Bifunctional protein FolD (Nocardioides oceani), 286 residues
Amino acid sequence: MTAQKLDGSGTLKAIKAELTERVAALREQGVVPGLGTVLVGDDPGSHWYVGAKHKDCAEIGIESIRVDLPGTSTQAEVEAAIDELNADPACTGFLVQQPTGLDEFALLSRVDPDKDVDGLHPVNLGRLVLGEEGSLPCTPLGCIELLRRHGIELRGAEVVVVGRGLTVGRPMGLLLTRRSENATATLCHTGTRDLAAHTRTADVVIAAAGVPGIITADMVKPGAAVLDVGVSRVDGKIAGDVADDVWETAGWVSPNPGGVGPMTRAMLLMNVVTMAERSLAAKASA
Ligand SMILES: Nc1nc(=O)c2c([nH]1)NC[C@@H]1CN(c3ccc(C(=O)N[C@@H](CCC(=O)O)C(=O)O)cc3)C=[N+]21
């Protein structure tokens, strides 16, 4: 038996088609969504990600504002760039590409929460905890959307998340345990005594540890869905958290590349559009 693919690249394409119509509708009402990015330094991976985001935007009618700063930039210089985007009406949402090598909490906190398309601003994470409307973190949201669009039931499901990183593992459980998802979430990490005992009970495993091949076939319940979120580089090639033999046991696996990565981009676009729609609704009711 071999697992079915959770196709992130194909799903990104489908979501882009849907968003193209929503962007056109916004433009008809005089709102032009514009995504800003702030990139610090010349890490090739970060450049690729940011380039991909702008290409995605161009395809669906979102304008782009790209701010590239040298690796020698100071905290104050990056904060000045953030202030400009906060004040720029053409920029309806933006992000600071991580890592910057600077004080990231200070940078995140400086972004206008209503322009925070990453969903990582402390106010938006707080809104998520409180159950209030805000922007949601792109990668965990992408995991949920990928499962949903492949017909995988989350209601009542046992979901085991591996890794407590701030962008994925930590907020994942908050999204999964909303009433709209109603999953049971277990968060495992390096302090977990018996990781395999947890993953073996899971209907869905979300592997976001950043440890190549940490999830092996013997750790997965037959038929389970396994999402490979981790991105490491081994000999210049992308290596995920999910070992190849998992395809023999699992019912569904997200490939890496081609799985959660493209879904992160899809949810970024979705956040840009949703936030622009909200700003229009707010204007209409004002
Ligand atoms: N403020 C901020 N927001 C982010 O969303 C953010 C960030 N910083 N820093 C880095 C991570 C990483 N990330 C990815 C986005 C797309 C792919 C992606 O599309 N990958 C493709 C191709 C990968 C390749 O071939 O190199 C794939 O998985 O198929 C991966 C990873 C966003 N991040």
